[in-house]
Amino acid sequence: MQERFWQAIVANDAAYDGTFYYAVATTGIFCRPSCKSRLPKREHVRIFHHREAAIAESYRPCKRCRPDGIRLPDEAWVAEMKAHIEERFAEPLSLATLSEHFYASTYHLQRTFKRIAGVTPLMYIQEIRLAAAKKLLITTDMPVQVIGSQVGMSNAAHFATLFQKKTGLTPTEFRQQPVH
Ligand SMILES: [Zn+2]
């Protein structure tokens, strides 16, 4: 690989967009030079001058920089992330898993999410989990600990502490309230 290509990738240099694409052997994804995805290892990078050539070798276009067409606006990107969180809140989600799924650095992902959603991704995950926990507390007889793990917080003590901090009540007190 020519040094100037590598430097363009390192610098997310938009001036090179359209002149080449780079594919990453380990992820099977290809990107524009300006993509804010995590910097791959140099030895895993392959340069393509035409996106068709990358596609022909079974590389998939990055969902972030959309080398196959129009770049997704940040609003739509954050909406996809929110939908992902709402669907998978019960799974072990973290900034790292999100950044893996959405092909972006944790820094860029967090910054964009916060700017558009008004809260960090982790705060949003918490909100969704607590809302789901409240619903289960009211509508089921499941033990508190089980509810915690059902909503992605398998550490019972952590779940109870967070719940109380956000609602002012322990999960049990919340459940016993006559009116919600
Ligand atoms: Zn990309």
Automatic annotation (TrEMBL):
Task: Tell me the InterPro entries matching this sequence.
Answer: Ada-like_dom_sf, Ada_DNA_repair_Zn-bd, Homeodomain-like_sf, HTH_AraC, HTH_AraC-typ_CS, Me-P-triester_DNA_alkyl-Trfase
List the Gene3D superfamilies.
DNA Methylphosphotriester Repair Domain, Homeodomain-like
The entry's protein name is Bifunctional transcriptional activator/DNA repair enzyme AdaA
E.C. numbers: 2.1.1.-
A Pfam cross-reference name = Ada_Zn_binding
- Show where the HTH araC/xylS-type domain sits: 79-177
Group of enzyme by EC:
transferase
- For this protein, what is any one GO molecular function term? methyltransferase activity
Provide the GO biological process annotations: methylation
Q: Could you say which cofactors this protein requires? A: Zn(2+)
For this UniProt record, the keywords arranged alphabetically read as follows: Activator, DNA damage, DNA repair, DNA-binding, Metal-binding, Methyltransferase, Transcription, Transcription regulation, Transferase, Zinc
Q: Which SUPFAM superfamilies match?
A: Ada DNA repair protein, N-terminal domain (N-Ada 10), Homeodomain-like
- DNA-binding keyword on record: yes
Alphabetized SMART domains for the sequence = HTH_ARAC
Organism annotation: Paenibacillus allorhizoplanae
Source taxonomy: Bacteria, Bacillati, Bacillota, Bacilli, Bacillales
Family matches, as PROSITE patterns: HTH_ARAC_FAMILY_1, HTH_ARAC_FAMILY_2
